[in-house]
Design a protein that fits this description.
Blueprint lengths: L2 H25 L4 E2 L6 E2 L7 E11 L3 E8 L4 E7 L2 E11 L4 E23 L1 E10 L4 E10 L5 E4 L3 H5 L12 E23 L6 E24 L5 E3 L13 E24 L4 E12 L2 H7 L3 E2 L4 E14 L1
Antiparallel strand pairs: 1-2, 3-6, 3-17, 4-5, 4-16, 6-7, 7-11, 8-9, 8-13, 9-10, 11-12, 12-14, 14-15, 15-17
Amino acid sequence: MTTLTKRIVAIGAAAVCLAAIQAKAADLDGIYVDDANFIEKPAELGSGWYLRGDIYYNVAKEQRQGYLYDEISGDTVDYTFGDGFGYGVGMGYRFNSWFRMDATVDRPIFSEVTSTASETFRGSRIVEFTYNDGNGDVTSDRTIFFTADGVVTSTGCTTDEVTAGCPGVGDSVAPIDGSRLDELGYAVWTTMANAYVDLPTVARFTPYVGGGIGLSRAAAWYKLTVDCVASIDEACGYPAGGQGEILRDQVLVDATYTRWLPTWSVQAGVSYAVTDNLDLDLGYKYMRIMNVASVMEDAGFTMEKKDLDLHQVRVGLRYSIW
């Protein structure tokens, strides 16, 4: 065999050995430690995919985000994010014994505040007035207009009738009673891409740290319904200013606003291997939803805080699928 031939055979043999080593390395990808015997075993080919589900409690610490000035009633309505439960689902992939990633969809916030209050309405009223014009008693129907505070702004009474006691401009009368229902709401859905580093396992417990980035779809809405309880001789106007007649259970405002907002998070926790395929996860996540003020300002609020900070105590399950 010539020297050239020997070199070609040697190169070929080396290539075959290298291919075998790479194939063996592929078979061993995803090695994990068996806690019972502390021996390394190769994971099955194609393994690593998992499903997850989580529930958690948001500790928002009663963050006062802003307030809404209601021009109709003249009232100021505060909006505060309180504590509450959330939930989420996702799917991920474990690349090796210490690194994994997943994509999740969560609903961390659904907040709705409903308040009912008594309200007085401006309006008009037909009054029956009787007075003596010198020739005897005269009865007439007169229309008066008044504010929500009961101050007469216009009257159909003549000067003589006003002198005789018919309500005149500036006089006080009873306004029309009724009620108002304010409904304020805010909801968030988040989509996140997350990465985790798993630390060494001890007695089936595996600590981890991680972080994620994504987008949140935030929706804010405000609805105002008023109910003016008028008699047959009365007509209701807006509670404070404005034009038009108010009917029973009339919706004056009904608006919803949505935006997609940047979101990021960091987290840490520990998982417990219940079985070879099922892990119980307990952790803490800090999440910041950026520029929440924008969607609230769309809804008419004056905002005092730009971002929303959430502190989540989470518990969930991860199930490996093969």
